[in-house]
Amino acid sequence: MIIAPRVTALLAALNLYVLATDQDPGCWRALIWRKLQAANVTNTKFVGTQPAQGCGFIYDGANEGHGGGLATAIVSNNQLPR
């Protein structure tokens, strides 16, 4: 993944909070975190109540992925704030 220099500079100037809500198997959160670190975007904080999965290396993998939960159900059940 190549991040354009201007995007990298913008991201470096911000505090970037990531709320991952997907319960997909695999280590996609870990891979995103690693790529951000490699691009020198180190001011990232993954947030959520669920812990990181074991992906073979240490990373900030807090998330809000709950098995069986669907974003479409939140909309269908009228659970969005107004």
Automatic annotation (TrEMBL):
Keywords: Signal. It comes from the Eukaryota. Residues 1-20 form the signal peptide. This is Uncharacterized protein.
